[in-house]
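Quick one: structure for this chain?
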Amino acid sequence: MPNFAEYYFFLTQLTAPIRIALSDLSYDVQIPFLAAFVLGLIGAFSPCQLSTNVAAFAFISRDVGDTNRVTRSAFAYTLGKILIYSIVGGMAILLGVRLQQVSVPVVVFTRKALGPVLILLGLV
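Got it. Here's what it folds into:
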């Protein structure tokens, strides 16, 4: 059975052509909204996002017989991701240049806190 590093490496190699093409495209796009959309697509093809989305939709579709419930749950999940990313993006715009200075301690704390939180959520 492959370990996590092998799995991550496999997904990275699998999505590399898409990410590289989108990255090249993001440098050429002169419209800010379209550039943000392309950068969002790059993030969506990262291995951690692919794993998260697959796991979320597997969880959501556990009641495959009730299509209305699955559809509502998938829509709520997608809307939640849009909302959170929009809030984070809005905060990044408001903070501007200070974001880089402020983000390092926040990222360090979040990485340390996220593991135990996910374990607790998994147990629940």
